[in-house]
Amino acid sequence: MTSLLVPPAGVREPKRGRHRAPVDGPVSGAARASAAAWPIGALLLGYPLWWALGLGALSVVVLAVPMAVVLWRRRPIRAPKGFGLWALLLTGYLVSALTLAETPDGTYGELNTGRVIGYLMRLAVYVSLLVMVLYLGNLTLEELPQRTLVRWLGALFLTAVAGGLLGVLVPRFEFTSPLEMALPSWLGGNPFVANLIHPTAAQVQHVLGHASPRPEAPFEWANAWGSDVSVLVIWFVVGWWTYGGPYRRAAAVLLLAVAAVPVVYSLNRGLWIGLGVSAAYVAVRGGRPLLSGLVAAVAGVAFLLSPLSGIVAQRLDNPQSNGIRAFTIATTVRVAATSPVIGFGNTRTAYGSHRTVTTGRSAWCPDCGHPPLGSDGHLWLLLISQGFTGALLYVAFFAGAVRRYWADRSPIGKAGTLVMLLVLLYMVVYDGLVSALTLYLISFALLWRNGATTATYVHLDDRRRS
Q1: Is residue 169 part of a domain?
Q2: Contact 179, 197 (CB under 8 A)
Q3: Domain count along the chain
Q4: Which residues lie across from 200 on neighbouring strands?
Q5: Among 74, 264, 266, 407, which has the highest number of CB atoms less than 10 A from its own CB?
Q6: Domain for residue 407, yes or no?
Q7: Does residue 314 form part of some domain?
Q8: How far apart are CA 86 and CA 104, in angstroms?
Q9: pLDDT in tens, 323-332
Q10: Domain residues for 158?
Q11: Chain segment 225-243, per-residue pLDDT in tens
Q12: Is residue 14 domain-resident?
């Protein structure tokens, strides 16, 4: 398996030097990250602590500061191909601030502190993620071996599984974080901010017609947990199975069986579809379709014979959210069409719902209310906040990554490409901010580092000179 990490024949490695680009190659199982990689280690291994402090999703914003300092000292900075698309996406978000005060037809609400706070927080996240990708790509393999980064992601998967079990067993567990106590009420009381800084084990919803816990710890909300777990399990399998010895592989099988419990109880159809897509991808690109099919069949039979299958059946029989999604998506597209180039900078609140043209929840209409446009997937958030231009740039960035790295048939290359495909799937059902997009872009950085040659990165200084 180690031979799969060697660059393909004919690929020229960059010249060795202090700022050489990382290239994929044999990595010792005993390889350790250097002190230069501490912000990434703090982000992934220290995530439970960040969550307890109220900074889980925002930890990348905090750690982007030391990352930026390191990058500044390491000039010239290298960037991957396709970097210009992300830079344009960020530039477009800055321009979209011009329309923050607009109230398009079919929506209501004036420019207020909450709208500005939401805009600024998303801007901080976008900038921080840009810094993180550049930081990862400019660390050498000696400073941060690929296998070490993969196993750090695997460690976060175990944290997510533990949080999921907490949500299933103690769904009402929550506490006031130190950050929540420190923030003034006008800021901490903002709904978007409150979701990020208030640690809770689960969201208790009536998806099945009765109160059902949907795990979310240690992430922002239940859908974020589903999206993140589906990405992290890919890297867990690579780190513990592909690169693992007999004992680690045996442990991986047991841990995946345990993870099935919160995965099913999450009632997260997007997560289930993503896992199905991942299984199909492995069967097609894994090189052993018969073995993959046999393993999938055995796992499927075991699942059907378990009590968990009944929960899945109940969820599929109760698609209450379909009507809400259809209404908000249709309204989002219609409203976005009135500002197709730069959008409106942030979400908007629509009149009515899929049940009524009136506003407000009542005893006879619990599904009525004020649905925020752009809340049903990152694609729809981009449409309302940055117009069709922003949505196109986002799709082009990740679709370009699939095209560029598809030929990388190493375990990391295949896994990273799978994550890029899941990004394109999840953008219609999951909001990417904050933790999900962090994991998407770490996966992108793994791909970039894996295939970094003189043909796949550029100097930012060279761009300025051209």
Answers
A1: yes
A2: yes
A3: 1
A4: 174
A5: 266
A6: yes
A7: yes
A8: 27
A9: 677 888 888 9
A10: 30-465
A11: 999 999 999 999 999 999 9
A12: no
